[in-house]
Amino acid sequence: WHQEGLKLDKEFIHTITANESLRTGQWVLDDFDFTKPRSLLANTVANPRETGNATYEHYEWPGDYFDKSEGEMLTCIRMEAQRSPGSRVLGGGNIRTLMTGYTFTLENYPTAEVNQEYLLMQTLLFVQDNAQHSGQDQHFTFSTRFELHPTREVFRPQRTVSKPHTKGPQSAIVTGPAGQEIWTDQYGRVKVQFGWDR
């Protein structure tokens, strides 16, 4: 593989390593809607990779949805995010123009399955000045390391930020319209204001 305008004797990819990892092959989301207690909100999406443990299932509750169609969409997204990092290619070379977020097609690699289009997930460029002392002409060397994601697979970022939650009991004051001692909605719930709610 080479880009137009580059010097083939100087800029090229010299290392490619294809990695496959074990991933759960099925995702299940479920939730409960207290206004419709008999509604079935569970959703299952199976999209196993051709690896071991592909029949394992990940179950998540609550799924944070109250509509079956919304749950189907979220389950599909969770399964794609689970499957996404299962196939990665790591590589190295001295190409200066690789940029994260772009795609390219790898060609002429000895293993035919690796020759395909990739999304550049990460690139690291190392530049070194090889001049022995000041006043000498500068001669730079470049080294690039990169991580690729095959575009035939859907890319979904991982959920790395957890949902906020409280640590221990929280105190609050029951609120409502002026002049009413206790005010509840149609489901018997009260409205409260926490101390941190300004």
TrEMBL record:
SUPFAM superfamilies xrefs: gp5 N-terminal domain-like, Phage tail proteins
Domain of life: Bacteria
InterPro entries listed in its UniProt record: T6SS_Vgr_RhsGE, T6SS_VgrG/RHS, Vgr_OB-fold_dom_sf
A Pfam family this chain is assigned to: Phage_GPD
Region (Disordered): 159-178
Polar residues biased stretches: 159-173
Annotated PANTHER family: PROTEIN RHSA-RELATED, PTHR32305
Name of the protein: Type VI secretion system tip protein VgrG
Organism: Salmonella enterica subsp. enterica serovar Kentucky
